[in-house]
Structures are given as C-alpha cells and as structure tokens.
Amino acid sequence: MIKIENLEKVYRTEEVETKALNKVSLTVNEGEFVAIMGPSGCGKSTLLNIIGLLDEPDGGSLKFAGTEIAHYTERKRADLRKRNLGFVFQSFNLIDELTVVENVELPLIYLGVSAAERKEKVDKVLEKMQIMHRRNHFPQQLSGGQQQRVAVARAVINSPRLILADEPTGNLDSSNGNEVMELLTELNEAGTTIIMVTHSEHDARYAHRVIRLLDGEVVMENVHKQFTA
Amino acid sequence: MFKNYLKVAYRSLVRHKGFSFLNIVGLALGLTACLLIGLFVFDELQYDKSVPEGNQVYRVYTEYTKNEALEAFAVVPPMFATTLKQEFPEVEQTTRILMNSSISLLEVGEKKIYLENGLIADSTFFDVFPLPFKYGSAKEALAGTRSIVLAEDAAKTLFGGQDPVGRELKVSKTTFIVKGVLRNSLSKFHLKINYVLPLAAAEIPAERMKSWGWQQFYTYVKLKPGTDAQQTQAKLQDYIVQKVRNLDKKDPITFVPFLQRLTDIHLHSASFKYDLAVRGNITYVKALSLIAAFVLLIACFNFVNLATAKSMQRAKEVGIRKTIGASQQQLMLQFLIETVLLTFVSVLVAAVLTSLVLPTLNEFTGKDMSFNLLAQPVILLLLVILTVVVGLMAGFYPALVLSGFQPIKVLKRSVASDGMFGRVQWLRHGLIVVQFSLSIFLIVSAIVVFLQVDYLHNKDLGFNREQIMFFPMRGENMKKSYESFKSELLQTPGVASASIGYGFPGDAVAGDQIQVPTKGEQKLYSVTHLMVDYDYLQTLGLQLLVGRNFSKELTTDKDHAFIINQTAAQELGFGTPEQALGQTLVWNVTADSVKKGQVIGVVKDFHYKSLYDRVEPAVLHINPADYWKVAVKLKGENLGSAISGVKEVWRKFSPDYPIEYKFLDDNFTQMYQAEDKLKSLLWVFTAVAVFVGCLGLFGLATYAAERRKKEIGIRKVLGANTSTIVALLSKEFLKLVLVAALIAFPVAWVVMRKWLEDFAYRINFPLWVFLAAGLAAVAVAFLTISYQAIKAATTNPIQNLRAE
C-alpha cells in the first residue's frame, strides 16, 4: 500500500543543514500494522508526516497504492487525505469550539456527505468507541482517554485505508493507553492499515512489525507477529 | 456545510468574547458614523432632484473680477430674462425672482404674523418650477397684480385647515387674493417659500425693467429638451460682449454671465454673493464623506489587526482541519463567513445606534432625515451590501493568512511559523501607522477649526455688539416721525442710546460709487454706504481716529459731511487718516442730484460684514431718506423692563404692526453657523476615530503581552523591574504613533491652511497644535497599552515560565 524508496528530507537553517531522513526505503502492505520507533530526533515523525502528505520530501519516491504522490499539489494532497487517510495525534488535536459529534463528523462534511448519512455514521462509530453518552460535550469536558477515543473515531469515520498515529498513547495513563491500543488493533483486524510512531515498547508489541530509525536511517526491523495479507 | 460554518462562526464569536467585543464595538461605531454621514450626504445631494424636468432648468449668475479676485453674484439684471426669452429660440421659459430681504406682515382679519421667505416672482414661476398644489392650480396662479400663492404651512397658520382659495389676505397692508396653496413637499427645494406674489405687484417702472445694470433678480431659464446648455451659455456671453457691454460708454459692463444647473445650486454656490437659495457646502460634504471613510477604514484595520494577531490561537484549528482534508478555499470561506457574521452583528448594532442618534442629528442639522428599515427597502439593501463589503474587506487578508498555515508547523509548535509571523507583524504595524495618521490628522484639524471658530466669535470687531436691540421701522407714521420716535426711545428707562439708519453691522448694507474730485477729473470708487444718524458712532461704540462725529449743531453736517473708515482713507488715495480730513467727496444720489461734502472724521475699521469678507472702504453720512432700521443700545441691568419699555414706545408710533426685533450679536452668531456645526461634527467624529483606533491598539497590546509572556518571565527572573517591562512593551507601539504623527502633520498643515484661506480674517496656523495633537495621540496610545503592559509586568514570572 505504501512504497517508499530512497526518501530524503533535509532541514536547513541559515548555517546548519540537518538530514532528517537519509535514503529511507520501506514498504507497508495493505492491512499491515507497523510501528516506527527510535530516539527523539531520529526522523520518525518527519517520516510519518511525509507519508501523511503533511510534509514534502526533498528526494526519493513515495507511492500510495501504486501511485507516485511525493509531489502532489496542495489541492490533490487535501483530496487524498480526506478520502484515504486518518490521523491520530498524541495531543488529540480536537477542535475546542466543536462538540464530540461535530468533531467526528468534520471529515464527512469536507467529503460532502449528506446530513442524514453523517448522523448515521457518526452514531455508529461513537457507539463503537463507547463515547455515545458524551456526544454533545465539548473536548475540555472529557478525560484524556475519552478525548483520544473521539480522535480515533474522527480518524476512522471516513473509513480510511490508512491510519497514521503519532504517539497515540503519549498523553494517556496505562489503562486508557491500553484501551486505545485495543481499538487500533480492532481496526487493523477489520482491514485498516496502520502506521504508528511510538516511544513505547509496550505499544509496539501490538504491531506486526517494528521499524527502528536512527539519525534518519532505518537501522533494524523486528517482526512480532506473522502478517498474512 | 454552510450551516456548519455558521455554527462554528457563532461559537467562535462567543468563545472569544473579548475579541468579538472589541471588533463589534469598533466596527459598529465606525459603521454608525458612516451611516449618519451617509444619510446626511445623501440628503444634501437630493436638492432639486425631484423638480419635474429640472434637468432643463438653469440659473443665470454673473462673475466679476474685483481687485484681482473673482466674485460671483446670484442676482442679475432684469434684461437677462427678457433677452433670453425673446432672442434665444432654445429657451422654453424664463422666470425671475426679485431680491427682497424684508420680512412682511401678513394679516387675515385679526390674525397678524410676520413671515419671511416671501417670493416676488414672474407669473411664469410655476412653468419653470411645476410645484404640486394642494388647493387651486398653477394655471393663472400668479396672474394680475393681486394674486398670492401660499405654502401649506403658511396657509394653515393663517386660515386654519380650510381651503383658502378665493379668500383675501393683506401683505404689508395691501390686499391679495389667495389663488392656490402649495403642497408640503418642498423640503428638498433650494428656495424656501412661505408665499409667492406676482412681480407685477411690485409695480416696478417698465423703464427700470430694461436695465442691464440693476442686479436685483434671481433668474432661471428652462431650455428646450436636448439643448446644449454649454452652447447657450457661450451664446449668452457673446451676446453680452457684442450688444450690451458698451451701451453706457462711461460705465461699461464688466460681468460675465454663466448658467448653473438647477441641481448644482444647493451645493455649489457657497461663495455666491446675495444668494437666496438654501445652501450647503460641497467642501463640507466632501470633508464629511472623507471622515466617514476614515472612520470605517480604521475600524476595518482594527479587524485585520486583531484577527491576524489572534491567528496563533486559531492556528491549531487550521492545522487540524487541513489534516482532516479541508482545502484552503474551504477554510477561507469559513473565516470569511465568520467575518461577515461579525460584521452583520456590528451592522445591527450600528443600525440601532443610528436610529437612536438620528433625531439629534436632525435637530442639529435642521434636516428631516429618516432611517426606517421597513419603510425604506433601499436602506435594508444598503445594509446588506455594507455587511458583505465590509466583511470581505476586513476578512479577506486574515482569511488568507489563516488558511495558508502549514498544518505540521502549527500543530507541532502551536504558534504560527516565524516567517509568516514576521510578515504579518509588518502589515499590522503598517495598519496601526495608517490608523494613527488618520486620527492625528483629525485631531489637528479639529483643533484648528476650533481655534478659528473661536476667533470668529470673539475677534474684536471694532464696535461693541453687546445688548443692541435691532429692528426695522414699520408703518408710515413711524417713518415720518422717526425723530420723535427716537427721542421717546431715548427717554425709556434702560436705554443707553439709539440710532436710526440703514447699514448696521451684520445686516444688509448698500454699495454704490463715490467720486473723488482730483485735479479736474472725477475718480470713481465703489464703496459701502452707511446711511447713519448723529448717534451711530456712539451706539455702536465706534472709535474715531481723527476728526469729529456728526453734530446736530452744525447744519452743514446733514448735507455736506462724510465720515470714512480707515480702509477708505487708504483706498480712496488720501493716505493717512489725518490726510483724509477735509477732502471732498461727491455722491450721485440720483441721476440729477448730488451730495457733495468734506471728510470730517475717520473711524477705525470695524467689521460690518462677516469675517469671510475683507473690510471694504465705507462712507458714513446722514441720509434720512434711507432710514429704515433702528438699533437701541440697552444698559446692562434689567434688560426685560427695558425691552418692554421699547415695545411700549413702538405701539405708540406703529399700533398696526407688531414689533419684531432681535439682538445685533445674534446676527453675527448666525453668520458662522456652518463653521460652528463643522466644529462640533469634527470633534465628535475625531473622538469616534480615536476611540475606535484605541480599541484596536488595546487588542494588539493584549496579544503582544500574551506573545511575549515567556520573554517577560525570563527578564523578570533576571532582575527586570515593572517599569522596564512596561517601557519594553510600550516602546514598540509608541514608535508607531510617532511615525504616524510625522506622516499626518504635513498633510494636516496643507489641508487646514487651505481651509483657513477662505477667511479674510483668520488665525495664524499655530505650530503648538502639532505638539498638542502628537502628545494627545501618544498619551492616549500609552494609556491604552499601559493597562496590558502593567498587567503583564506584574504577573508572577514563574506562572508564565511553567506554562511553557
């Protein structure tokens, strides 16, 4: 589903040039759950942002389902994001002005889905995330675990083919963290591809495979579980 | 989708209450100022627009060059109308109104009232101005010599509500028959009308009506449809040169005639002499429009400033929306809808404010403007357009900036990227400079106008205008026995002195020529003639420089003595006042009688006209034939009983006429009404502009303090005290105010000097005004900023550092 070859990303300030990614190549198959690990500054978030079309690479190739997307225009990126990708962040990134329901249905609004259909889908996913009873609350009124469940609900509402999770449990205690990881696993078992950046070895064990980065290069791959497409 | 935008916009307004409040108040004030000025300007532009076929109607006026200055006269000789009608085939109709400033007594049975604004017009008046009639009809309404047409209000006062057509009415003791009543729809007509009499009633000798020199008629011409007025004007000018100029070899005609569009009369005649029209002033209309634009601009800039400053707070939202798949266009639309919504709320507030303030403005301007959303769909439409235009104008740039944020940058750092921030900061600073330039410009203008108006009212006019009761004599008896009338007045307790004459300060004065016989040839000068009596100097408190006053003891003073003013001594070529004494002057009273005499005294110049006009050479002499007006100087104490004493004497001499008096200083106060109003309006709008600008500055200071929280914390930990922090935060803004001042000063200097030039007597442009305006702007700005600066500086630094 994702095929990366010799991907490069360089950050420049006036004097210093830092290679965030140095000829990274990797492949993620459809239905796979991959964890990316490494110390701070190893380039894992940069990699995730490039895969999520939030950032552009300086070199190399990025293919999504066989199509080269490394240098898509802003408009095409936005389109691809809203149709195929879901994001989960460490800091949840819910919009404070919107209620739970409104946050979750936002991707559908940008897809132009009708109100009736939106309601049906949102109800279903909130039910699944067990957050239905707080549907009209604002983010500040929820606990961290609840907020992250809402964020996951928003990430999956448009049935994306790929979910990108950036330290999804980083701001959660262990029991809430486990809940979120269970949710991601369920989604993966239902067929969604997941790429997750994490610091936590515990979380990484939920994945089929762990890719380790150091100084912008892939240094190791461990397979936890056998993945069959 | 749209509903969602509105919902988010609404929540965002409610959530950021302070921001919304600042914006709404600022915009609403700006819009209110705009609406009020807009209504005023619109009303001013409506004059004579509804006269049927008014686009074919022109007024004839003349221009002279006098002492190298151009003077325009609204009145022209009677032959213009006659010639235009007879010799210009493109002329459909002409009509004349006799210049006549007197107020007449109207009587119906026992009811007596004085009415001004009585027109004496050609019977063709209603052909040129087809005004609507309530009773009777325009046809034959001014036929014969004894017809009268009344305005609706006048008819109501005189006859109650009934139809008065066919009833009798006395005007100055002559009986007229009512032929019609005009409908009350004249508020936007350039002539104020209480009644119209036929010109035939004035019984002017036919010979007089053939004059090319007697400038006494407001003359209108209605051209046939499709006529090029420019061409007619050129033809008319040519006609004057060819056939009229040298009719009188000794006294050639020097004026040039022009045609003025009917719809231009109200606003484009401000400098005309002897005008009868209700006049506005296009300069003031333009100035007000400009101020309205300024205030609205300042309010819009506020919005741009606050919105971009606040963008850090919205950045995260933008990042999330983009990550989820929102396109830049969708986000721009969202932010624009937010702005339009905010503008909409402001427009609602402004509409309410406008309807609350309008009655005051109506009273102030003497207008009858209305602002009714339901009754005037045009206004509703206008408000909708205003909402969209202002919303887009204020919202476009912030929307562009906000929607342009890169999601990963704002999500990672929770602050807009530095590059973007720097660029926006530049813009914000630029906008503040523009805002303050406009404000400072207005402050300087307001002070200059205030000083000049104060000068107009308080300048030493060279005579004492206090407590002088002033009225015209009425009735044959009073005029005949003016001497005993005066001596009885003088015996009335409370009366200090009295003077009867024609040509009192602030009132009408006569102009004519005077001859100075030098070495055989007679030199002619055009001067002001003040027809006075023996007590004129004393009553007005004029200062005699040399020579003596007129004396009753010297019988020759009545027919052979002149007193002149200082300017006359110079302009008639005598030199100093001393040299003028004993010089001979000759005045041609009529074609075959002259008054010849010596200069017996020279008075210090006094302002018998407004300060717009330079003091002209004036000649004072005793001339009972022209006696008309009475000035009675009252003693300071117990004015009430002195006035009733004067009234009693009046009743003895003129029982048929009620007395109708005013005070001489009121004449002067009225001269500067337009300036008084300009002064008040300028203060109000300057205050609004400064206030709105400060709202924006307050908002910006808030965000600046917010943004530099961490810096302030670190500085305080390192030992900075409160005052250094306040200085640090204020410096940035005060610098901008100073730059603004440097831009505003030269502009204000040029513009206000130009305005002052209209006055013959004016203040010297005081340079301290700049210092005052600059200090005021800095002080206001500092007060605005200091609240936030002090708050930021006194916060416990650990709180801010821990938050990082």
Automatic annotation (TrEMBL), chain A:
Pfam families: ABC_tran. The keyword ATP-binding applies. Residues 2-229 form the ABC transporter domain. SUPFAM superfamilies: P-loop containing nucleoside triphosphate hydrolases. The keyword Transferase does not apply. InterPro entries: AAA+_ATPase, ABC_transporter-like_ATP-bd, ABC_transporter-like_CS, ABC_transpr_LolD-like, MacB-like_ATP-bd, P-loop_NTPase. It comes from the Bacteria. GO terms for molecular function: ATP binding. Keywords: ATP-binding, Nucleotide-binding, Transport. Gene3D superfamilies: P-loop containing nucleotide triphosphate hydrolases. This is ABC transporter ATP-binding protein. The lineage of its organism: Bacteria, Pseudomonadati, Bacteroidota, Cytophagia, Cytophagales.
Automatic annotation (TrEMBL), chain B:
PROSITE patterns: PROKAR_LIPOPROTEIN (PS51257). The chain crosses the membrane at residues 21-42, 287-307, 331-358, 378-405, 426-451, 681-705, 733-751, 763-785. Keywords: Cell membrane, Membrane, Transmembrane, Transmembrane helix. Residues 20-238, 507-607 form the MacB-like periplasmic core domain. It is a multi-pass membrane protein. It comes from the Bacteria. InterPro entries: ABC3_permease_C, MacB_PCD, Macrolide_Exporter_MacB. Residues 290-406, 684-797 form the ABC3 transporter permease C-terminal domain. It is found in: Cell membrane. The keyword Transmembrane helix applies. This is ABC transporter permease.
